[in-house]
Design goal:
Immunoglobulin-like; five-stranded antiparallel β-sheet; disordered N terminus; mainly beta; single chain; four-stranded antiparallel β-sheet
Length: 130
């Protein structure tokens, strides 16, 4: 059985959360594993100066298709908001796709949590930010 691997790293004002791996998700047919069939989940956060831009990204070195679910919860003195977004994705060999983008006011830094889940014929993976 594969074990999830989580990496966090920063580049400038961007913070990346990466999770790799995946036993297959229910509801999708299982394909034989390939030498490098990782499905990669990333939540990219950029500080634009006035806003925080959260981008949900799927990457894979092999062709893959599936569905994603992004949940963003923000709580501060101004109130609480919760966004749930989802849809389908399809990646070509070695492809990357920005699945959706959410903008938050800059004051949300330290007051939000985001989670991205990917389900595909290659398995499932999820990641969180911060």
């Amino acid at each position: 059985m594969l074990s999830p691997s989580i990496s966090l790293f920063a580049a400038g004002s961007a913070v990346f959360a990466v999770c790799l791996v995946v036993p297959p998700a229910s509801g999708f047919p299982v394909k034989p594993p390939m030498a490098d069939s990782r499905l990669v989940c990333e939540l990219r956060v950029d500080d634009t100066g006035t806003m925080l831009r959260l981008r949900a990204v799927a990457k894979s070195p092999v062709a893959v298709a599936g569905r994603y679910q992004l949940s963003v919860l923000k709580q501060n003195q101004a109130g609480t908001s919760q966004n749930q977004l989802g849809g389908s994705f399809s990646l070509a060999n070695g492809g990357e796709s920005i699945l959706t983008t959410v903008m938050l006011e800059r004051q949300a830094m330290g007051h939000y949590t985001a989670s991205l889940s990917l389900e595909s014929d290659r398995g499932s993976v999820s990641c969180t930010s911060p």
